[in-house]
Structures are given as C-alpha cells and as structure tokens.
Design brief:
Layout lengths: L1 E5 L8 H12 L8 E4 L8 E8 L2 E8 L2 E5 L11 E9 L2 E5 L2 E5 L4 E4 L5 E5 L3 E9 L7 H7 L9 H15 L6 H22 L8 H14 L8 H7 L4 H9 L5 H17 L9 H7 L5 H12 L3 H22 L6 E2 L1
Antiparallel strand pairs: 1-3, 1-12, 2-5, 3-4, 4-11, 5-10, 6-9, 6-11, 7-8, 7-10
Length: 340
C-alpha cells in the first residue's frame, strides 16, 4: 500500500502546519518529540511525501520546498525507535547539525540518522530525498559502531558504497512496484548491504563479526517462525555452533533467544490480526501459523505484550479502519491523503 500526502489541496495559510503533521505522522518515532518547522520565505509551502511499505521496511520519498526542522527534545528510546533511518539525497542539499558536528549531504550521498537525539536539519533549496527505515535487528552491527557512522556523509567512494547507494536509490524509487514476497527478500538484501557498508567503514572483517553472525541467525529464525520446533538447539545446529555460543550472541542485546522468537511471533500475529477485512482467519489459526501450539499461552503472552487480548486487538484495529474509511468517504477529493 502506498500513501501520498500533499499540500496541494491545503489552504496556503495552513500548509506549514499541515507539513508539520505530515512529518510526525510518517515517522512514528517523532510523535513524542518537539519539532520546530520553519521556511526561509513567507510563500505558501509546497511539498509531496510518498510513503510505501516494503515488507518490514518503510520508504518515504519527499519532494518539497526549502525547509528547516529542529528537534529540541531528546526522544524516548523504545519500540518506535527500533528502526534505523537511512537518508538518501537525490536532489538539493541537506545539512545536518547533531552532536556538535555538521554534515553536508549532496545528491548521491547517504547517511544514517538518529531521530532520538536533538538535531537540526536544513534544506536550503528545493529537494528530493528518500528516507528508508529498516528494523535495527536486521542490521547486524553494534550500537557503538552505528553511533560512529550516524550523521556521517557516505559517497560512492568505495566499491561497497558504489554498490549500496544505487541499489537503495532504485529500491526506493520503485518501492510501489514490488510484490510482497519479492519485497521481503529485497528488505533482507538491503539490510545485508547496510551491514556490509557499516562494517567496511569500521574497518572490520565482515565474515568474522558476531554482529554479522547474529544477523544470519535472526534471519533464519524469522523464516522459521511457523515451526513450533524452533528452539536454541535446532538454531545452533543449523548454524554449526554450540548452544552456548548462540546464547552469547544475544547477551549483547540484553535478551535471550527464546524471548526474541516470542517477540517476533507476537509481532507477526499482531500484524495479521490488524489486516483489514471482516472475515480474516480465526485467532487460533493465526497463532498456529506463527508457531504457537497453545491458544491459551498465546493469548496470555499477547495480553502481557500489548495490554489486551488478540480478539480485542482485532476489534480495535477494525474499528479504526472503519472510522478511517468513513472519514475518507466524507472528505472525498478534499482529502490530501489517498491510498494508491
């Protein structure tokens, strides 16, 4: 599904406020922070943002007038920040001020971006850029290494960057055209390439890092969530390592293999329960599909994670969808948000 948000049908005097809402609405992790949005002129603001979901990755492409965005409060790390933001500049310039340093992004450059810490981003001229949000767990590098490459401009000055940047740019440009099953594979490829790029920048051996091995293990587990026999023993055997080594890989993330599997299974069930449509699969069928053998234990784990039962979650999701459809039907052509 694609979502397009545009200032075109918004009254001129309300466009900047509307664009502020667009930014907060598109990037969930910005909902809890204070943003200051300003423009260098008094002219009516023009901007279009296209958002696409490719598997577990979100791609947002923005074409807009010059703009400055200041985030003045430190965000709260949590579920909404479990994504790595990658900025790809296609046209115009981007200036990032964060952590007492300044970065200039030119067309064809890439950078990783931290939305939690305070920052100022400036677009001094009309611009076009992609922001790709990838689940952090898929990018198998240490947090310390990610911080070292955050807000650092990367150009096609190495063989790896010359491969990664065009791939991500084309992936973002054609985001709406990828079938779901192909999209899932492309997301894994994108995450692997980003892991390789960061690892190269840190001067590390890609094949020997625990982070890279942890990424391969997580990808394997994600592909086998439906197997009720998925366990530390079967995972370790599939990767020719000891169970003790497997557990040690996850100690750095302050979790366990079993907890991680349950978290991913619950997330998969939650997404499936929230799909639109009155006649979806039964709750028990969804639980079995993603590896839960007992409906009772699934319901208990789901309530502990999300504060409501699976059936309550599905009912709430369908109510929200019905309200959204009703609102869209009433607003018709005047609604700047439309599904494509």
């Amino acid at each position: 599904m694609s979502i397009v948000l545009s200032t075109a049908s918004v009254p001129a005097a309300e466009r900047l406020d509307y664009w502020h809402e667009v930014i907060s609405q598109t990037y969930d992790q910005l909902a809890s922070v204070r943003l200051n949005v300003s423009t260098p002129t008094e002219a009516p603001y023009n901007g279009v943002l296209r958002s696409h979901q490719i598997g577990s990755m979100q791609v947002a492409t923005t074409e807009a007038d010059p703009l400055q965005v200041r985030q003045t409060t430190r965000g709260v790390a949590g579920a909404d920040t479990d994504y790595l933001s990658v900025c790809l500049q296609e046209r115009g310039l981007l200036v990032i001020d964060q952590a007492d340093s300044q970065t200039l992004l030119r067309p064809g450059s890439l950078t990783f971006f931290d939305t939690v810490r305070p920052y100022t981003v400036s677009y001094p001229e009309p611009f076009r850029m992609h922001v790709i949000q990838v689940p952090r767990w898929m990018v198998g590098v240490r947090e310390a290494d990610l911080r070292r490459v955050t807000a650092v401009s990367m150009d096609t000055d190495s063989e790896t960057a010359a491969l990664v940047i065009p791939f991500l740019s084309r992936l973002a440009t054609r985001a709406a055209s990828h079938p779901q099953q192909i999209g899932d594979l492309l997301v894994r490829n994108a995450a692997d390439l980003l892991t390789t790029l960061v690892t190269e920048r840190m001067g590390r051996d890609v094949t020997d890092t625990d982070a890279t091995l942890r990424l391969r293990v997580k990808t394997f587990m994600d592909r086998h969530l439906a197997d009720p026999g998925l366990s530390p023993q079967t995972i370790a055997a599939a990767h020719h390592m000891s169970v003790r080594h497997l557990h040690r890989l996850f100690e750095a993330e302050e979790t366990t293999v079993s907890r991680w599997i349950q978290h991913r299974r619950l997330e998969a069930c939650r997404r499936e329960l929230g799909r639109p449509g009155r006649h979806g699969p039964a709750v028990t069928a969804i639980a079995h599909r993603f590896g839960f053998s007992s409906p009772t234990s699934f319901s208990r784990a789901f309530r502990a994670a999300y504060g409501m039962s699976p059936r309550e979650w599905r009912a709430a999701a369908h109510r929200d969808q019905t309200q959204s459809d009703t609102t869209s039907a009433r607003t018709g052509q005047d609604d700047p948000v439309r599904d494509m």
